[in-house]
Structures are given as C-alpha cells and as structure tokens.
C-alpha cells in the first residue's frame, strides 16, 4: 500500500451528508477557496493511494447518452492506467447522489469522481471523502465545497465559436440580421456561459441584432415553443442559437412550421454534439452544433485523480477555482465525416 500521510478533519458523517441535499442544481458555487497548495487540494488533506487502487464514479444518470459516454471515458481512463473503476448510477436523484457517493467512499476507493445532481449536496460528500484521504474531482454540472478539481466543457468558448460561425456566414451580407437565442433553464450556470459569449460577440458586430432571448427549458418541446414565439414576433428572423441540442431540435420543427429552412439560408446552431443534432446537420436541416466531448472528459477525470494522488500538478486552467476547461468544437456538414470518425474511434 502506498501511503501519503495527511492531517484530516474527521467531521463528515452520513447524517450530515443526507441533510446537505437541497434544490438548485445549477446555482453558482460559492465554494472553492483556491488555497495555496501546489496541487490545488485542500491544504489540510494528504491523500492515500490504497491497494488495489480503485476510483469510484458517481454518475448523474446512465439513461442519458451523454453520461453513458462520460462513464465509458472514465472506464477507459482507468483501464489505460491499470486501475479499477466502480460506477454508481445516481438516476437523477439527489439523495442517491449522496448515499451512492458515501457507499463508494466506504468501499476503500482511492479517488472519487462525482457528476452531481445537486451541487449544493457536495460539501458534506467532499468532507467525508477527505476524511478517508480521498481526492474529489467534480465532473461537470456545477460545484460547491472544498473539491480538489472541477472539469467542465469550455462553455464560454463554445458560445464564442457559435458567434464566429454566424459572423462568417452573414457578417459581410447587408443587414442588420435578426438573431434569436434559446437559453437553458433559469439558473443554469453552463447555459449562462454559453449564451453570454455568443451575445457579446454578436452585439459587437453592427450587422446583427438580437431581437429575442427565451428560455427553452432544455427540451425539444421547450425549444419548439421558444422558437415559435420568436418567429411569430419576428418573421424576418435569420438566426437561432440554442444553448443545447434538444432546444435546437425543437427550433428546427418550429422553423418547418413557419416555412423557414437552412437550405434557404436560415442559420440554426445547437450545443452538445448529440446524435439527433448531428443527424439533422447531415440532412441539411440544421447548420451546426458546438460539440462537447464527454468521453474525453471522463478520461481526463481519471488522469486528474491520479495526479492528485501522486501529489502532482493537476494542470488547472483556472487555478483559483481548481478548474480544467475541456475543449469544444464546432461541427458542420463540412467537417462531419472527420468528427464522426473521431467519435467512432472512442468506441
């Protein structure tokens, strides 16, 4: 057994963990202290790599293809590093997030990866893990507490890429061109990041005007309703940017109802890189999507846990908030074949 001794606060108990559950899954965290530790880990915790070395992943919901891919990446990262991986499905249940994470901690794991249903439930989970000398890597959604690393897609850059695409297509065409934005649900931090950079870039260009920004509630039906409203109020709308692919898919259906199509020059962009959006792009019914890489993030999460266990630099992009930003890319019909091939190689 490899032991890396630390002073540990033994204050976390299961009852506190269960009491920590609350609403607000996407509320901003008021958490990370940034610390002055070189690895970003809690200054009072020294981690222990147990034998056999096992990493636990408490995953949001394995019914969702995105988290299936993320889980596959975690497993692949573990296999590549020669470590065991145990996956627990939270089934979108905040109580199961807490109890499942605690169960993993009690299995003598050496590292914990959590995709939280409710970030507000994280602090007690993290305290319990640290009491057992276990580093905690938060995998997407949001953060709270004294976590050791947070991995998320570079959502702000994704919004900027979407704006860049729109400007490339219409920036030199006489305007102004009217643009609609479909947001994620209120309080979604990642949604705010995806929208803010897009809006800032488009607003800086005199040839565009954002005439509507509506909540699509992250769903196909919500995207349909939002797009229907903005198209009804703005029949000359030329662009819709949706902060996730489900909303974009709904928007495409609303476009059909309104007699609008990508083939006629309308621009429709989503965000995620989901199979449904990729299929629409191939069919010429959607312009582009900003694709995330959940599989790659899963691999990176394992690498980060191992770096923390060894006391190495976790290579944060934002050291103050212990955050690693994972790259995103814009996918269009032009680069679809290469993108599909790269994702097939992950299987």
Detailed description of the structure:
The structure is a single chain. This protein is of the alpha/beta class. It folds into 2 domains: 14-147 and 294-327, Response regulator (Rossmann fold); 155-291, 3-Layer(aba) Sandwich (Rossmann fold). It has 11 helices and 12 strands. It has helices at 14-19, 65-81, 94-105, 122-131, 155-170, 189-203, 220-233, 245-257, 275-282, 294-309, 336-344; strands spanning 54-59, 84-89, 111-114, 136-139, 149-153, 177-183, 208-215, 239-242, 267-272, 288-291, 323-326, 329-331. The strands form 2 sheets. Strands 2-1-3-4-5-11 form a 6-stranded parallel sheet, with helices on both faces. Strand 8 (239-242), helix 8 (245-257) and strand 9 (267-272) form a beta-alpha-beta unit. Helix 5 runs parallel beside helix 6 (189-203). The protein is elongated. The two termini are 33 Å apart. Mean pLDDT is 88; it is low at 1-40. Residues 1-25 form the signal peptide. Residues 55-312 form the Periplasmic binding protein domain. Keywords: Signal. This is Sugar ABC transporter substrate-binding protein. InterPro entries: Peripla_BP_I, SBP_2_dom.
């Amino acid at each position: 057994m490899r032991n890396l001794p630390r002073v540990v606060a033994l204050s976390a108990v299961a009852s506190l963990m269960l009491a920590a559950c609350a609403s607000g899954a996407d509320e901003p965290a008021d958490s990370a202290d940034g610390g002055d530790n070189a690895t970003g880990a809690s200054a009072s915790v020294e981690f222990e790599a147990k034998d056999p070395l096992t990493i636990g992943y408490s995953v949001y919901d394995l019914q969702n293809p995105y988290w299936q891919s993320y889980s596959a990446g975690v497993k692949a990262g573990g296999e590549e590093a020669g470590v065991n991986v145990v996956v627990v499905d939270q089934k979108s249940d905040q109580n199961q997030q807490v109890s499942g994470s605690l169960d993993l901690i009690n299995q003598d794991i050496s590292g914990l990866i959590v995709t939280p249903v409710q970030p507000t439930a994280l602090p007690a989970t993290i305290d319990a893990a640290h009491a057992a000398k276990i580093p905690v890597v938060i995998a997407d959604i949001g953060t709270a507490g004294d976590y050791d690393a947070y991995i998320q897609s570079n959502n702000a850059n994704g919004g900027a890429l979407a704006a860049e695409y729109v400007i490339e297509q219409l920036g030199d065409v006489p305007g102004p061109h009217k643009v609609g934005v479909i947001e994620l649900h209120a309080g979604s931090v990642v949604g705010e990041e995806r929208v803010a950079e897009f809006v800032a870039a488009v607003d800086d260009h005199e040839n565009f005007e954002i005439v509507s920004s509506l909540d699509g509630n992250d769903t196909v039906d919500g995207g349909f309703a939002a797009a229907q409203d903005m198209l009804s109020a703005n029949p000359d709308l030329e662009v819709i940017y949706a902060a996730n692919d489900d909303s974009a898919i709904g928007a495409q259906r609303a476009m059909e109802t309104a007699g609008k199509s990508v083939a006629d020059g309308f621009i429709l962009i989503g965000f995620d890189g989901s199979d449904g959006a990729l299929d629409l792009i191939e069919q010429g019914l959607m312009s582009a999507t900003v694709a995330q890489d959940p599989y790659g993030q899963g691999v990176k999460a394992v690498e980060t846990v191992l770096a923390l266990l060894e006391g190495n630099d976790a290579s944060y992009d934002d050291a103050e908030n212990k955050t690693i930003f994972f790259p995103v890319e814009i996918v269009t019909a032009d680069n679809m074949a290469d993108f599909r091939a790269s994702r097939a190689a992950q299987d």
